[in-house]
Structures are given as structure tokens and as C-alpha cells.
Amino acid sequence: MSTAMQIYNTLLEHFGRQHWWPADTRFEVIVGAILTQQTSWRNVEKAIDNLKEAGMLDTGAIADADLDHLEELIRPSGYFKQKSIRLKGVCQHLKDEWAADLDEFFNRGLDDIRTELLSLHGIGKETADSILNYAGDKMIFVVDAYTVRLSSRLPIKAIESAKYDDVQDFFHSNLPQDLYVYQEFHALIVKLCVDCCRSGPRCDICPLKTACSFFLGGLDPAQLS
DNA sequence: ACCCAGGTGGCCC
DNA sequence: GGGCCACATGGG
Fold this sequence. Notes:
The chain is mostly helical. It is built from 13 helices and no strands. It binds a DNA duplex through residues 32-33, 36-44, 46, 75-83, 86, 121-127, 130, 142, 144-147, 186-187, 189-190, 193-194, 198-199.
């Protein structure tokens, strides 16, 4: 079994299933992915609740929304001036180019969708991959700051650098091609970092132990790859 | 009163 | 290609 899979099993056993992404619809995943950029999920929930209560959690509604109104609704998620423009722009794109039909939008090759998402203002690699993986059920591993942090604390030589593409390549190369594993693993890494690494390492309660350097019950770092 | 949060784009060299 | 910066609310 690969080192990556051992880490996954350890986290899953310790924390249990995370049931990500926390959203009712694919569109809600897209909205949340944009709003959660550099922002705690708690604040994003408030913004999404505001959108729901206003009947604005809808592609066309946001595409046609008054910018000031949109700003007020998503204000709790921070960067609200930027995010309102970006969120509206993405919705306008989905409405104009895809008639707001996400089934059609996702019904093609991963690379085509990813290129299109990355061309939109306000969607970078992590947001694009979150949308692809959790809204589109595509086989692509989401890398975020937590994933990079974890990777840098593990003695994994196969990761070339602490850069997005290298970290992502590692997981792609060392995990079974299983959508469930991809989705759950990323969620577990977030759970791990929120519970154990926030505000300084909490290695006393971390299931990977000692800043993750001697994890998995004494597995020899020399055999890691 | 700090520090951080499930990033991104713009600018500079 | 890399290094800095602005963006903003809310919780520990």
C-alpha cells in the first residue's frame, strides 16, 4: 500500500467520514468554492445562508444581481467587493455560455473544463479543482494550503517541491483512481489541520504524531516514497 | 491587540 | 519563474 494511502487510512480511522463538499447542490459548491478563498468556512456559511434567504442562490439571479445587493449578502465571507464581482462574473459566464446548465457544463473532458474555469477572473487552480472534483465529480485532487502544509511536514521525497502542481502530482501518482478517496482525503486533510495544526502544531492530539515526522505508528521514514 | 482563515490577481524584477 | 502586496470579515 502506498504511503499516501496509509495516511488516508489513518486519517479516516481517526476522524471518520467528512461527507464533503458541504452543499445541497452543485451550484452551491461553485459559490462556496469562490467565497471560501482565504476565508474560514464559518463565514462562508453565513454568506451562503444570506443568499438562500434572499432567494439569490441561483445562477441567473446572481448573474443579473445588483452589485451592491450582492456585496451586502456575501459581506460576512470577506473580500466582498472582489468576490461579488468575481462571483457575478462566473455566473454570467455560466448563464451566457451554458444557459446555466451545469450538466452540460461538466459533460466533457476534465482538461477542457479546467482550462475554461481557469480563464475566469477569480478562479485559480484550487478553486477550479474544487469545482471539478466536488461539483463535477472529476478525478482531480484538490490541493490547498493545508495539503501543502501537511506535505511539507511529511518525509516524502517523491514530492519535488511544496508547489501546487508537484503536490498534486504526488497524490495523483500514489492514490487509487477512486473518486471517493479523492474527495474524502482532501476533506480529511482539512479536518486534520483545523483540529490539530491551527494556531501552532497540536501534535499531542494529531493522529499523525510529532509534526507528522514519525507518523503511522513508527513507520520507517526511509521506506517512504 | 494581535494572528489566522479551505486564494487570487496585479505588479515588479 | 519568484517575491510582494491588497483584498476584509469574524473567531481564537
